[in-house]
Amino acid sequence: MRLLLAEDEKELSNALTAILKHNNYYVDQVYNGLDARAYALSETYDGIILDIMMPGMNGIDVLKCLRETGIETPVLLLTAKSELDDKIQGLDSGADDYLTKPFAMGELLARIRAMTRRKSEFAPNLLKMGNVTLNRENFTISTAEGTQKLGNKEFQVIEMLMLNHNMLISTERLMEKIWGYDSDAEINVVWVYISYLRKKLNLIKADIEIKASRGVGYTIEEKEAAK
To answer: How far is the C-alpha of 125 from the C-alpha of 199, rounded, in Å?
Structure first.
């Protein structure tokens, strides 16, 4: 699942992002309200985490803007404030939930799971392309010929490709979204995981394939014979 995290405290943002990615989410990080609004209006997310006190535009105003434009993505508000009025204002503005800092990571993860479950009709657990089904609950790919279990990074790579099928995704974007800005991994790690996925697709006789554009990026497409 894909989340937008808008938190202006960069150390906290990086810590939250690391934990969320470890729990099979991939995360776009922004550090101010203006960027949060721009990302939320131009991208598709399963959930949005908004800090209320941010530079540029506060989280409540971002939330109001999204709801006014018809975006119904679940939103969890984060704030250091604990006054009842702030909570009421956030919920009245269209927030799905509210969490006061400091909070336990287990509670944050539970809140995210709860709000994204309520959106399940818009974000199905099964992604299908060609004869392949990607199960977002148990991290497997399958066809009538068999099933293969995916590791965390394998799952995130193929999910990103399938959500953007027939679109070229650059190696740098895959690296940024899945391994993160601060990763010590080399860029060729993307090719390694693409190679793992190709082998697993072959094992289940998939009629889709991951194609490389040398030096640019990757696409996932139906094989020519299957079109």
So the answer is: 23
Does residue 227 register a pLDDT over 50? no
Query: What is the Cα–Cα distance from 142 to 206, expressed in whole angstroms?
Result: 8
Q: Are 218 and 208 in contact (CB under 8 A)?
A: no
For the chain, the residue count is: 227
pLDDT at 96 over 90: no
On whether the CB atoms of residues 78 and 7 are closer than 8 A, the answer is yes
Q: How far is CA 225 from each of CA 14, 128, 221, rounded to the nearest angstrom? A: 44, 18, 11
Q: Which of 117, 144, 166 is the last residue of a domain?
A: 117
CATH of the domain at 140: 1.10.10.10
Tokens of 100: 């006061």
Domain co-membership, 152 together with 70 = no
Element housing 82 (H / E):
none
The pLDDT assigned to 209 comes to 95
Domain that holds residue 195: 126-226
**Averaged pLDDT, 166-183:** 79
CA distance 3 to 161: 16
Its pTM stands at 0.56
- Of the residues 117, 152, 186, which one is the last residue of a structural domain? 117
Between β-strands 47-51 and 75-79, what pairing exists: parallel, antiparallel or unpaired? Answer: parallel
